[in-house]
C-alpha cells in the first residue's frame, strides 16, 4: 500500500498548487480590474493644486493683465507723443533779453461749477542766442508751452489774481536776468528755421525707459509666478506617479517570492 500512497499525495499537493496559482491569478486580475476601473488614466489626470497655488496663479495673471494695461496707457499718453514730437538737439544758449508784455494774454478761469469766467496772465518772453550759430531765438519751457502759446515762455495756471501771476513771472524774469551772458543748456531743431527753442524736454529717454521698464518687470514677474506654480504642480504629479509605480512593483514581488518558497519546500 505504501507505493500507491506517495503518488496520491504528490497528486494532491500538485492539485492544491495549481488551485493556488489559479486563485492568485484570478485575484490579481480582479485587483488590476478594480484599480483600472476606479482610477482615471494617467493621461487624463489633472495637475494637483492647493488654495495657495490657486491664489498665486491668480496673482500672476493679475500682474500680467495690469502690465498690459500699463503698456496701453503709457503708449497713448507718453510714447506716442514722444515719437511724434519734433526731434531736437542739445545746444548752449545765452539769455540776451527778457520782457513782460503789457497787454497780457486771455485765459479761461475754471474753479468749479459756479466759478467760471475769463482771466488774464502776463506773457513772459525770453530771447536767447544760440552760441554755435549766433541765431537769435525765443525760449520756451518745453514742447507743450510751444503748442499752447508760441509767444510766451510758459503758460501758468489761470486764475483771477493778476498780482500773483505777475510776481511769478517777475521771479522767472529775474532768474534769466542773472544768467545774462552765462551759457546754459537748451534744445533746438537743426532741420528747421523756426526760432523756437525749448529749455527742457517734456519726455526724454529717462521717462521712456521707466515707461517700458516697470511694465516689463511686472509682466515678467507675473509670468514667472505662473510658470513656477505650474512646474511645482507637474513635479508633484510625477512624484505621485513614481510612488504608485513603486507600490505596485513591491506588491507584485511579494506573491512571487512566497510561491517560489512553497515550490522549494515541495
Keywords:
single chain; 266 residues; alpha+beta; 2 domains; five-stranded mixed β-sheet; two-stranded antiparallel sheet; 5 helices; 58% helix; 17% strand; elongated; disordered N terminus
Quick recap:
Residues 13-50 are annotated as: Disordered. With 266 residues, the chain is an alpha+beta fold. 58% of the residues lie in helices and 17% in strands.
Describe the structure.
One of its GO terms (biological process) is detection of calcium ion. Regulatory subunit of the calcium activated potassium KCNMA1 (maxiK) channel. Modulates the calcium sensitivity and gating kinetics of KCNMA1, thereby contributing to KCNMA1 channel diversity. Keywords: Glycoprotein, Ion channel, Ion transport, Membrane, Transmembrane, Transmembrane helix, Transport. It is found in: Membrane. It is a multi-pass membrane protein. The structure is a single chain. 58% of the residues lie in helices and 17% in strands. A five-stranded mixed β-sheet has the order 6-1-4-5-7. A two-stranded antiparallel sheet has the order 2-3. Helix 2 packs antiparallel against helix 5. It is built from five helices and seven strands; from the N terminus they run ααβββββααββα. The chain is of the alpha+beta class and 266 residues long. It has two domains: 76 residues; 112 residues, no CATH class. The chain is elongated, with a radius of gyration of 43 Å. The N terminus is likely disordered. It starts with a helix and ends with a helix.
| Strands side by side in the biggest sheet | 6-1-4-5-7
Percent range for β-strand residues: 15-25%
Evaluate the radius of gyration: 43 Å
Oligomer: single chain
